[in-house]
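User: Could you go from structure to sequence for me? I need the amino acid at each position, not a summary. Structure tokens:
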């Protein structure tokens, strides 16, 4: 899962656009620096929201396109299930405004994992619910049936983090642009 934020150049005046295209300009460097700090804040806020979840370890900064003024965060491959945690599954799905396109990518999709569904549930029962091997194996099928029939509740960790990080980015840009204009 990857959430990207792009600064929309169309909303900026012509002169600012020209400066932003020059990757060696002070304005462009300021935007890149602000986006880098935004990424760090976004990842930090998301990890705070994911407290107690294993996928917290897989939330990383999306720095590949900073020169194109694009930042954000991503979940590493081993935490491929992050969107299902964020939005929920089946009838319990809740998609926050602005995340419709991201959620649409995962609707009805199936993924491959190194472990089977049952193995993942057994591991979860042993770690989180503190069940023995025997108990976990006995409880696995009822838990799996419930997940398949009812779904899982969403546990948003990215959407709330994005709201906080966007506020941070606006403050950061305002501060740094004022420094350039002095």
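Assistant: Here is the amino acid at each position, in order:
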């Amino acid at each position: 899962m990857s959430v990207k934020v792009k600064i929309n150049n169309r909303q900026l005046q012509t002169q600012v656009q020209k400066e932003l295209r020059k990757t060696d300009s002070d304005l462009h460097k300021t935007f890149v620096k602000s986006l880098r700090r935004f990424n760090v804040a976004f990842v930090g806020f998301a990890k705070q929201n994911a407290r107690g979840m294993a996928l917290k370890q897989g939330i990383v900064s999306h720095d590949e396109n900073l020169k194109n003024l694009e930042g954000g965060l991503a979940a590493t491959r081993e935490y491929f299930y992050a969107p299902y945690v964020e939005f929920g599954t089946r009838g319990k799905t809740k998609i926050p405004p602005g995340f419709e396109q991201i959620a649409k990518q995962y609707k009805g999709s199936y993924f491959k994992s190194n472990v089977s569904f049952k193995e993942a549930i057994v591991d979860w029962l042993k770690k989180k619910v503190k069940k023995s091997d025997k108990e976990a194996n006995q409880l696995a099928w009822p838990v799996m049936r419930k997940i398949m029939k009812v779904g899982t509740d969403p546990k948003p960790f990215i959407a709330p983090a994005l709201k906080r990080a966007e506020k941070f980015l606006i403050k950061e840009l305002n501060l740094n642009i004022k420094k350039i204009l002095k």
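One structural detail worth keeping in mind: Residues 2-109+153-181 form one domain.
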